[in-house]
């Protein structure tokens, strides 16, 4: 029986969130390690990495629904005591991930240059961006399969496996980064190749663990077209939600690119660190997805309500802790990302500004997890589209004002981060808070639970 006391719920949340953190930070760790190594080459190389990694992270981030929808569906079926059906749904998600990964990799390799041009890269910055995209994207299929497999492990309550696969992957990336960039002298290309190999290492580890689980439950690994299509349909609204989030992030990169190399280089350093830190909070949200999904699958609405309170409390508290660490790291560690004193100052100040918003980020991400676990995908898609639309308009106004007034690089980069946090994250957070504390999402949860019935 599920534990019902707040203390027991916190233990259950930690049992999922801590291992999940390992998998969630894998991709940001790749980029953060790449940023630190490439930043020692030149600001031009770092700016190229910023554009290239934005394309890769955006492409991968658009497919987060593979993990989120799988977690939600598998956990609800587990809550309803339908383990074999949950595993079959997970296998369908893995096949969908493989198909999407192959198509996405081919598209990025072929379109690396025009996409980098669209983000504003030119000259040597463009060359570096294209090289990174064409090499790092070779590991995307492995990453997407890992997302779907991790969704299965979370729904099964076996999230610990995701931690070990991510640790092995991150260590592989760091070692190969140093070897390829400095040992072989490959520069940005070495960074991309190291990232691609590390992504496949994580994938193979997870599949090796998943095989015995499927065999014990007599679940075939052969592709089932009906199941793959059902998995795709289940993730459409989550894809729209994630696409809107990425539009907001890419728009910020485009504005930073237009404001100069130093602004873009500092933005890359802060953004890679922010993505890494934010995944600590996202891990709480993912834990919430699994716990809420199980409660709703079992029809236990009282427990679901209690989970909301505990999950959002954990998000706020950990947001404060992460914010303090983020500010300290930015103030004292900015020099790790660049050899230019002026760029280091931009990084340090920006990270302190961003750190102020982390408790709010924790609240937002925690409730995101609750609503995803409930299957409230349509609401999340609408809310993120609204937030991204307003953010792009506010960003355009900020860019025009900064350009017209000849603002300093410091004023420019701080303004970009303030607009992002106050407008984009502000709208998303307030929407999640109002939604999760109302009753409509419960109706959406019941509808989602009924859709899992055969």
TrEMBL record:
Record family assignment: Belongs to the multi antimicrobial extrusion (MATE) (TC 2.A.66.1) family.
GO molecular function annotations of the record: antiporter activity; xenobiotic transmembrane transporter activity
Name assigned to this protein: MATE family efflux transporter
Organism: Alloscardovia macacae
NCBIfam families the record matches: matE
Membrane protein topology class: Multi-pass membrane protein
Pfam families in the record: MatE (PF01554)
Segments traversing the membrane: 12-32, 44-68, 89-111, 131-149, 161-182, 188-210, 247-270, 276-296, 316-334, 346-367, 379-400, 406-427
């Amino acid at each position: 029986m599920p534990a019902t006391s707040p203390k027991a719920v916190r233990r259950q949340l930690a049992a999922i969130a801590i291992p999940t953190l390992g998998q969630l930070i894998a991709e940001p760790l790749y980029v953060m390690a790449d940023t630190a190594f490439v930043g020692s080459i030149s600001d031009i190389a770092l700016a190229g990495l910023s554009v290239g990694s934005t394309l890769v992270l955006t492409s991968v981030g658009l497919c987060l629904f593979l993990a989120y929808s799988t977690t939600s569906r598998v956990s609800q079926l587990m809550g309803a005591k339908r383990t074999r059906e949950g595993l079959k749904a997970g296998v369908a998600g893995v096949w969908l991930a493989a198909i999407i990964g192959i198509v996405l990799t081919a598209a990025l390799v072929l379109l690396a240059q025009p996409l980098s041009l669209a983000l504003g890269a030119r000259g040597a910055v463009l060359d570096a961006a294209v090289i990174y995209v064409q090499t790092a994207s070779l590991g995307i299929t492995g990453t997407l399969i890992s997302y779907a497999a991790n969704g299965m492990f979370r729904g099964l309550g076996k999230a610990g496996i995701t931690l070990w696969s991510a640790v092995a992957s991150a260590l592989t990336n760091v070692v190969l980064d140093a070897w390829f960039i400095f040992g072989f002298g490959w520069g940005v290309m070495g960074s991309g190749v190291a990232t691609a190999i590390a992504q496949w290492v994580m994938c193979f580890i997870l599949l090796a663990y998943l095989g015995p689980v499927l065999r014990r439950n007599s679940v075939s690994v052969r592709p089932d077209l009906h199941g793959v299509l059902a998995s795709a349909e289940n993730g459409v609204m989550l894809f729209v939600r994630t696409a809107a989030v990425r539009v907001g992030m890419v728009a910020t990169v485009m504005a930073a690119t237009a404001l100069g190399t130093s602004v873009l280089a500092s933005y890359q350093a802060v953004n890679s660190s922010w993505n890494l830190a934010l995944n600590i909070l996202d891990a709480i949200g993912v834990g919430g997805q699994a716990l809420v999904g199980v409660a709703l699958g079992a029809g236990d609405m009282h427990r679901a309500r209690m989970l909301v309170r505990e999950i959002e409390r954990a998000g706020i508290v950990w947001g404060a802790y992460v914010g303090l660490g983020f500010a300290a790291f930015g103030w004292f560690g900015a020099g790790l990302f660049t050899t230019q004193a002026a760029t280091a100052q931009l990084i340090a100040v920006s990270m302190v500004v961003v750190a102020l918003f982390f408790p709010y980020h924790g609240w937002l991400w925690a409730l995101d997890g609750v609503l995803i676990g409930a299957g409230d995908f349509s609401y999340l898609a609408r809310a993120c589209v609204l937030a991204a639309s307003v953010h792009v308009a506010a960003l355009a106004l900020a860019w025009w004002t900064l350009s017209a007034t000849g603002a300093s690089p410091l004023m420019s980069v701080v303004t970009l981060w303030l607009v992002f946090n106050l407008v984009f994250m502000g709208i998303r957070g307030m929407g999640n808070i109002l939604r999760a504390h109302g009753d409509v999402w419960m109706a959406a949860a019941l509808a989602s639970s009924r859709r899992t019935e055969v």
